[in-house]
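Input.
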Amino acid sequence: MIYLDSAATTFRKPSSVRAAVLHAMQTMSSPGRGGYPSAQSAETLLFRTRSLAAELFGVQQPENVVFTFNATHGLNIAIKSLVPPRGRVVISGYEHNAVTRPLHALGAETVVAASPLFDTDGCVSAFRKALRRGADAVVCTMVSNVFGFVLPIGEVAALCRNVGVPLIVDASQAAGVLPVDMTALGASFVAMPGHKGLYGPQGTGLLLCGTDTAPILEGGTGSASLEQAMPAFLPDRLEAGTHNMPGIAGLEAGLRFVREKTPQRIARHERALIRRTSSGLQRFDACTVYTAEDDGAQAGVLSFAVRGREPEEVAAALAHRGVAVRAGYHCAPLAHRSAGTLEHGTIRMSVSAFETAAEIDGFLHAMRGILSK
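Output.
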């Protein structure tokens, strides 16, 4: 199989991730629930992983790194910590349903800082205009999960700091590929999954916390057990219930892989593959390819459309030829509305550190066969 759906999850993992998951299953029980060796091993792993994530993502205290089930879980915590019912929130035009659905559930006034695809200056101008009336929070993705558009998060963060509005960053498609520095951004929260660019297992994620939090899940924490309210301190306040120790062990191994490879090298590799794909697809008259002129404006995600074919039809034909891509709306109708692709959606291919130029050529060969029929 040629796997080109890493924006959904990186299917290929480092061998160290698989080994860490198995080791945790064989040696670790529940952290904070006992003084025996298997519980202490789990406790040690939690602290080690928090410390590694804090180092990689510019978090000043490891306890401000909270383990979540995925980025959606973290974004829900962040949004519900900052946004009151019917509050006012400014978001980019490229947000995922993991942002827009929680805001809808709160009845929030959601102001979209809309801008054309790959227009970074337009994005900054749209946020500047939207923030003139203030807001309870800003939510901005670093990279569009549909188009790979790298949004100008540094400039958006500066606007938020200047007007005193808290910022929530969705780093789902950026963590492990682009620099993420919570302290430099001054963000209130940064959410990321463990199973994409961090190469950890599914069911893992991180929420970096820079402000007070409101738990959305209550239960046992192994601490302050006589109190019926959740602990006031992090990370316990947001980590009710038993931890996913095999998942977190795999996540730690994924973080170590990213640190060793470096996000910069991974990004260069992914961008080279995207350029190769874009150039190849543009040779087909029937293809519309959504690609940035500036390499820095696009990460390892590329959307395209085929004239006269539904995206799902093309994706099914590719699957028949052993190529995995995603088609449709990618849980982000707002991004399609911003880019003008809402009527049909797109076909999306996305890469990781493990895909190769030969696999891109195999994908293009499959496309040539599909378009010839």
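The longest strand covers residues 301-306.
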